[in-house]
Amino acid sequence: MVTNARQVRQNKIINYLQSEGFVKTLDLVEMLRYSEATIKRDLVDLENKELIRRTRGGAMIIDKGKIDIPYLMKINRFNNDKKMVMLAKIAQKLLKDDMVIFIDSSSTALHLVDVLTKYDGLQIITNGLITASLLSEYTTARVNIVGGSIVPKRFTINGSKALHDITTYYADITFVSCRGYDFTLGATETTEGEAYIKQAFRKQSKEVALIITSEKFNHRYMRQSLSNHDIDYIITDKNLSKDEKNILVRNNIRFMSESEQ
């Protein structure tokens, strides 16, 4: 219960800072109804996770484009994310019985679990520990998890062994997300390990579907995971301009959104 309460508090702090940019410690004390000492410990913890920067008497958000909300915070609220549930239903159009599927370890991909329960004969390969656990519990799919090194606090596996394991499979389709998408560069990540995993999925898959929310567009990070030529579908809630749609058409990418159904 203590851990859950701390996660709830820290999630509220992050959500407030994403909206306002800065907050005073005493305002958090009043807002959350916890002691000043408890709030300060939360701020130290969030700063250690590189989510915020503490200032004299308060805290400020780190660049919103670079923020990575802790994985368990995302998991705790994923069932209530109507936007992601909608994207998963759009992705369902690409599914059928008896498919072999790669799914990455992103919290975005977790929303596919519910729609995957509707299909039989699936074999699913993932590098996500929680993803594999939920798929095993709620679907009838045969679930395989790649070997390798676990990334601390992210419940994801990468490394040379994971890359080798991926080469032993071939999938009908891959579902992945990304940290940022640029219409020129494609999909990008902040870490080399995540980028390499998605590149490996691409090489061993017939098709790739990139599931991304609107705020990830027009951001680029250090590591390219997928070029535009690597992507077959983009599933998003973003309303694209005519020029943006034309870029996707030129790269043979099918745009899928609620408005395009």
From TrEMBL:
PROSITE patterns: HTH_DEOR_2. One of its GO terms (molecular function) is DNA-binding transcription factor activity. Keywords: Transcription, Transcription regulation. Coiled coil: none annotated. The keyword Transcription applies. It holds the Pfam family HTH_DeoR. Gene3D superfamilies: 3.40.50.1360, Winged helix-like DNA-binding domain superfamily/Winged helix DNA-binding domain. The keyword Transcription regulation applies. It comes from the Bacteria. InterPro entries: Carb_Metab_HTH_regulators, DeoR-like_C, DeoR_HTH, NagB/RpiA_transferase-like, WH-like_DNA-bd_sf, WH_DNA-bd_sf. Transmembrane segments: none annotated. PANTHER family: AGA OPERON TRANSCRIPTIONAL REPRESSOR-RELATED, HTH-TYPE TRANSCRIPTIONAL REGULATOR SRLR-RELATED. This is DeoR/GlpR transcriptional regulator. It comes from Metabacillus sediminilitoris.
